[in-house]
Amino acid sequence: MIIVGEIITLKRNNDFRRIYSKGRSYTSQVLVTYVMKNRRKEVRIGITTSKKIGKAVLRNRSRRVIREAFRAISDDVAFGYDLVFVARGKTPFVKSYDILRAMKKELKEAGVLK
To answer: Looking at the DSSP assignment, which residues form a beta bridge with residue 9?
Structure first.
């Protein structure tokens, strides 16, 4: 677990596997969001990009755009959740506000936004 700014990130494989198997998923054309309650008083996020997205430059851009979109709404997210964002094929080619719009929709559907 690494703290970047005030965002706590997930790094361990078993955390990701637990969220994939027991969490709920919400999808859009540019993003998939997995949400699961945790027993902590903090929000932890993980971002994954597969090789289907493209080479390293596109995968890194996808992670940057997702991280920036989350940073914009991180104050509105309720505490006590683990979130995993999965990039999709269109993710590296859209702007951060498109990701932000999809992220808000999915998190609101999940009941995570305040």
So the answer is: 2, 45
SS3 string, 52-103, reads CCCCHHHHHHHHHHHHHHHHHHHHHECCCEEEEEEECCCHHHCCHHHHHHHH
User: What is the pLDDT at residue 3?
Assistant: 56
**What DSSP designation does 113 have?**
B
Share above pLDDT 70 across residues of the chain, in percent, rounded to a whole number: 95
Strands 81-87 and 43-48: parallel
- For residue 14, what is the enclosing H or E element? helix 13-22
**CA torsion, points 5, 10, 12, 13, in degrees to nearest 10?**
-150
pTM recorded for the entire structure: 0.91
The crossing angle, in degrees rounded to 10, of helices 96-110 and 56-73 is 60
95 close to 31: Cβ distance less than 8 angstroms: no
CATH of domain 2-109: 3.30.230.10
Domain ranges of the chain: 2-109
